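Subject: complex prediction, re-run

Hi both,

The earlier run crashed halfway through, so I resubmitted it with identical inputs.
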Amino acid sequence: MTTLGHLIDGVRVDDAARTQELYNPSTGEVAGRVGLASRATVEEAIAAAQAAFPAWRDTPPAKRARILFRFKALLEQHADEICRLIGQEHGKIVHDARGELARGIENVEYACGAPELLKGEYSKNTGPGIDSWSDFQPLGVVAGITPFNFPAMVPLWMFPMAIACGNTFVLKPSERDPTSTLYLAELALEAGLPAGVLNVVNGDKAAVDALLDDARVQAVSFVGSTPIAEYIYGRACANGKRCQALGGAKNHAIVMPDADMDNVVDSLTGAAFGSSGERCMALSVAVAVGDAAAEALIDKMRARMASLRVGPFHDADNDFGPVITRAHLEKVCGYIAGAEAQGAEVVVDGRGVQVPGHEDGFYVGGTLIDRVTPDMTCYLEEIFGPVLLVVRVDSMEAAMKLIDDHEYGNGTCIYTRDGEAARYFADRIQVGMVGINVPLPVPVAYHSFGGWKRSLFGDLAAYGPDGARFYTRRKTVTQRWPSAGLREGSQFAFPS
Amino acid sequence: MTTLGHLIDGVRVDDAARTQELYNPSTGEVAGRVGLASRATVEEAIAAAQAAFPAWRDTPPAKRARILFRFKALLEQHADEICRLIGQEHGKIVHDARGELARGIENVEYACGAPELLKGEYSKNTGPGIDSWSDFQPLGVVAGITPFNFPAMVPLWMFPMAIACGNTFVLKPSERDPTSTLYLAELALEAGLPAGVLNVVNGDKAAVDALLDDARVQAVSFVGSTPIAEYIYGRACANGKRCQALGGAKNHAIVMPDADMDNVVDSLTGAAFGSSGERCMALSVAVAVGDAAAEALIDKMRARMASLRVGPFHDADNDFGPVITRAHLEKVCGYIAGAEAQGAEVVVDGRGVQVPGHEDGFYVGGTLIDRVTPDMTCYLEEIFGPVLLVVRVDSMEAAMKLIDDHEYGNGTCIYTRDGEAARYFADRIQVGMVGINVPLPVPVAYHSFGGWKRSLFGDLAAYGPDGARFYTRRKTVTQRWPSAGLREGSQFAFPS
Amino acid sequence: MTTLGHLIDGVRVDDAARTQELYNPSTGEVAGRVGLASRATVEEAIAAAQAAFPAWRDTPPAKRARILFRFKALLEQHADEICRLIGQEHGKIVHDARGELARGIENVEYACGAPELLKGEYSKNTGPGIDSWSDFQPLGVVAGITPFNFPAMVPLWMFPMAIACGNTFVLKPSERDPTSTLYLAELALEAGLPAGVLNVVNGDKAAVDALLDDARVQAVSFVGSTPIAEYIYGRACANGKRCQALGGAKNHAIVMPDADMDNVVDSLTGAAFGSSGERCMALSVAVAVGDAAAEALIDKMRARMASLRVGPFHDADNDFGPVITRAHLEKVCGYIAGAEAQGAEVVVDGRGVQVPGHEDGFYVGGTLIDRVTPDMTCYLEEIFGPVLLVVRVDSMEAAMKLIDDHEYGNGTCIYTRDGEAARYFADRIQVGMVGINVPLPVPVAYHSFGGWKRSLFGDLAAYGPDGARFYTRRKTVTQRWPSAGLREGSQFAFPS
Amino acid sequence: MTTLGHLIDGVRVDDAARTQELYNPSTGEVAGRVGLASRATVEEAIAAAQAAFPAWRDTPPAKRARILFRFKALLEQHADEICRLIGQEHGKIVHDARGELARGIENVEYACGAPELLKGEYSKNTGPGIDSWSDFQPLGVVAGITPFNFPAMVPLWMFPMAIACGNTFVLKPSERDPTSTLYLAELALEAGLPAGVLNVVNGDKAAVDALLDDARVQAVSFVGSTPIAEYIYGRACANGKRCQALGGAKNHAIVMPDADMDNVVDSLTGAAFGSSGERCMALSVAVAVGDAAAEALIDKMRARMASLRVGPFHDADNDFGPVITRAHLEKVCGYIAGAEAQGAEVVVDGRGVQVPGHEDGFYVGGTLIDRVTPDMTCYLEEIFGPVLLVVRVDSMEAAMKLIDDHEYGNGTCIYTRDGEAARYFADRIQVGMVGINVPLPVPVAYHSFGGWKRSLFGDLAAYGPDGARFYTRRKTVTQRWPSAGLREGSQFAFPS
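This time it finished cleanly. Structure:
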């Protein structure tokens, strides 16, 4: 059994004094080990990034972008292998991994436009004979800390843009499924990134703290749960860094009485159970407006869920795979049990699902719970499992109040045909990413990803235009040339 | 003697359980008192702002901007009175106050462009039949904490834009010279701002902490010294807020051998001694490249400084006025003494200057110190007085290293006629605001103000385009309409 | 009776060799005369503009904008007088003139943001050590030719932005109602515009041709009818100029079966009859989808039109006033008669309306014609009178085809509550300005005004962001400094 | 000998009723034939483009861009073949063809950013409850007419962006060297462009006129000589189309007395003689300020030119190749003879150069002519050959006046080390593309290419951001939803 190391200054580095086991959630078996970087190893990575910075910052943006063009091609060429590595450690089905990778590649494509995105602002004559311009310069060494649920996509939200902007990068992927991430980084080097521009350290909190405390790290991007996001943001900021920390979610869909219910059920099914609900944009609460809508929704969901298939990652006929660990499986089942105990009605129960031939995999089946109320634990917390809650309300205003009162503000959706309802909802709801008949309103790569309330700490969102701003800092130059200079001289005209 | 109160929900509110004296630094006399708000008073202001938010956010941006158009006109109309109030409590000469106000008004002018600045990004067909747009929405209640040295300009950096973006505002000006600030706020109300949209609380650390800790405050803008900036940033971020905190400076000018020395001396004189050096953009260190440049600089500066006039604020013939307090006077003189003790050469000594008729005023004369070295206390710390240090180096690279090694990175300047030297300097120097033959490279209102290193904490600079981004948050909407709707129906065509 | 002259280089100039009468359409009486400029007078205006250009182009944009801030204030201060002058010569009711002026002032407000709008694009390191930036420079002398129907608004679409961009301007207003336009220009000079920056020549085709043929005129903006627009565009372009020429319209509203019919009728009434229909954005064709919608529409319109009041401009109780000339009155009535003759049904007939006390005024009452078909003359041509046609179709697709088949593509509207229908319509219809439940979708001043098809010739629309682009030209600078220059020299460090 | 056909609707189409010979200028031999399309064939291409438009416009921009990503990869993969085809028909040396292709590929890279470039402007609350957005929609069928001197680069300036914006394209390349252009188009189809999206017709004026007159063609981009540009612009505009027509040039470099003369000579050599001077950005006039500068320049140029190698395209050791035709060779030699006759001094004479083994090739050697004056024919007209003129003046102002007085305003350059001279020049010179120590200031692909004066007709420049604007038209939507709709209904809450 091999032990996964780190990627520092262009080479694989071992630091396996401490290690952690890597599981294949589809079988429940241990499939490998990953070394957990010491502070010294993290500092070595930071030093490599620091050393690579001066030459990289001076590389013309168009030339930096050209490496990303090649990186995109390599990602497409090696997509099968990347998706296999994702599936093996994370458990998501191959088509789902493909989707994740496609979304990640879109971020590479966007970063290819760096020369356009880095344009500064130029003002002639801010005063008589005075010009001023603002330039967006790279920060230096920046760090990314990414979660287990998107081992390819979330790193691709970060490092391509950071690097396109002229920074060098230290990435710490999740220690639960780091293999595909490390592979991506190696492809980036193969595409032509100079050694030290992109470094990967595997590790746990020790590595994170080393990144947060090192004065050479100028900025930190984080995606994970809200408690950790809050910790990262507080500590990075206390250390004077810029930081963006994306946390948890509880994404509601309002189902209006005029909604196209077949469309609702089709799209909710994917949004709630895809990737076992282990997505920060998973749609985990359906808010039915009126009992008629609720009844129709429940009936059709129950019917639709009968054909849902859960199983191992390599079988493309499955709709979704296992959850990430046995402990998480138990936590998810605990939420279902709690809901039942607190009075909700478990309409479809995914606990105890059996996958023949994979009895030790970490499987939870699709679960539908009706008559959930806002005081229940399953409603208040993020379950991160294939569980869809239904809350019933009497009016659209009540549905919106429910959403606005929740701690999180990542994504939300309304199902309606009515233009006015959609506009009212989108304008006022206190959530950062809003869908109108779109249950997973993940912004495309040329917009930016960011929740509101306790789903994001910081003032710039992830990727897209905000990403370019987060990874650069403004420098403003004001220029006036003394006159009476060469231009007006006459001595040169008739040299003796 | 009157006690200045607070401005909450459109009316003057007294909270004078604790007060502090207001001085006239030109005479050294106490001229009034200011009440120091309790936590309850601050919370009252926040509550007023919170209550005013929903209607203000829904007011069309063009209509909000129209109030700022009127505000600009009122500021121009009442400029004399504003400048008198500034001079009386701060000590700056009337022409300097005029300059401060003019710069402040430029920020109001920029905020008048809110409808343009708030434009979101619209993308048709992000997928088949799917549209996406990002909108920049106001945050809610935001707070500004401003310093004594620009009682009009720095508040005008903040609240006009914040308000133009649809936020409501709680401003805590410096407790040393709050009267002009409060007057500005009253003019804003006179211009048509609804009650509660702009509130002013006077106070000290208790008020600041109340703002930092209140969950209703979404964002904090601060300008002041670096230790306080660091405190504010850490505490605001730990509370999950967005924050921009601007701190101290030590702004160097490189004087190249080819510089137009008359231009250098003229412009340095204003940049070093104007406003008694109490500006975060004051040019406090001249770095002469080569002894020949140094000698020429010293000679011409000495001659130029002979005619410098220091005196009370109301006499427009003075070049600059007193410093803010007696304690600060002593601190500045202490730096001069320390420089002398550590081996520097005090070429022109401003200590013990006498202003006839104003013997108790807080005056320090223009001071020039040669042969300063980077280890001296006067070099390492921000003096914030009318003191210009000269450091001698052998090469431009050495001059740049000096600047880059300093803790602060607010402003800097190079004096040269050489295009290559200017470009090299502007590109590489680790400072946020760079002048080429411009010693005070304060960005115009349509660019943004921000230092690097320990001169600014946060990722967006103050005012200008960054201001508009800081005071808004992105919401991204993704929309798809189910087809088979009204449009395709045929039943309506031939009703029975 | 006075004869209106011209405004050249800051002074009133007479050139009245040829004159034309000015009518008061509300009474039908001649109220004055206007001189028609000779080619020499036009060239004098161009020469004045040319002479004023160099200093004006070098005036910092922020300073240029500050004059527009004052201009806005003067327009607001003199609004009553402006509206009286408009009403007297054009005939529109005072509230309508107020609306026109308000829309015009919004364009001045937008132009106040010139420093932001003129920002160029700055790229560091387009190659190693090479920087590039694009700057938007003024063109020089530009000309505007404006129509009778908006004597204040359309000139304000043009010259404030042109001037804010650093150009100088020659304006030729309509010779039918030039007095208010000339007054505006005088207020602009009062606000601080230097002489020669804005010039006004009154005149007819001779003046137009002089502007089109003069090599010093760099660009031409025109608003008027399509045949003239086509002539202007062809001739200006043949002379190598840039040109934008806005022409006629036939704006359709689709009334869907699900529309809120009360809202339809209320808003159509204003959009069809306001300003006697003499607006290029007037809503002149209602396309009812399904006979049920048609019947409801006709019934409610007939009822609503019973209370429509037509009368002289100074009576604010009137809904609309006379048309511009007696000849135009006869033309409008001719279209109504022609419709009747071709088989349409005149539901409400505005011909022969009597306004007591103003029997000689040029009045046509509100007219509603049902069962219009696409082959009728009244449908094919622009009537420019208070006449609303109703066409009946069976489906939304048929309604859209009708619109797309029409020669013009200025504005259009759909009335519906359905999100999908609205999106489909807005996406696909071949019209430049689209309303969803908004019958007069005139873009706000911070967007741009432009029709499609034969409603606009040119590639940039009027006012807003396109205006700023039309009135500037891009200059791109690429800069590399030879190294081995001053910076690397060591000789200066230790001068002998 | 084969006859080159056309590419219509995805297939090669023959129309060889009329043909023209294709030469290999390096040998002077006929190498093939090209069919000259009839009006019917052009109309067939337009019809194919028109038919392909609806589906292509509805293809999401990101998906369109993805085809361009593949196209870029194919261009890189087939670079050798493309450059061989260019060299064979045009004569430029392989390294020069490589440079041309690289520049062309940069435009494809830029067009890959279409999703960002096509973002519209979105404004919430332009009025109460009213939203407005502007969208940039494709035009339909657009045409490009390209010159012989860049058979790969100029087509790549046009069709990738036009297509990325959703238009379909008809390209008419130069009939002198169409083979490489046709090959590019085939690679674009191979990359995945649907049939009909990109069509190529070979032809002469008949084909051009067919494109200009067809009502289905919405816009025309042209690059060529000024007389043709003027003809195209006039005719396209008279037909109501939008048009950008780029014409000729006479690009001057000012050599200031402080210039780094080795750098001047190195860079001028490439800029004047590269591609035999057959570039619209070729540097054809050096303006020496002061006789000292002139003498130094002449001496060093003469020395440098001694090693210039002219010869056949396939030998990479050559500096440049033949001119395009024998007729053109004679024309260039005529200009040299004329200069001599009018009194200029031919310092280095390229007439009658012999290339062993290629005696019939169309070669002119590098030519340097001193003491040229502004009245000489060689100065007034564009030579388009390897001829560098030197004009001597006494001051920088005189040099600038020379440039501003010339009919053309494409590119220009100043050689200096002085910041003030550079800024003054770049700000004021009446030329669209300005170099500071850069003799060929061709803007990078993410800026735009456009001369001033008679070098460009139209208001938007070629490629870059202006390209995206030229190939789209603005549509502005204004939306208000009637309230009292579904949202406020209560009937659905408690269905009976």
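Chain A touches chain C through 28 residues (CB under 8 Å).

- K.
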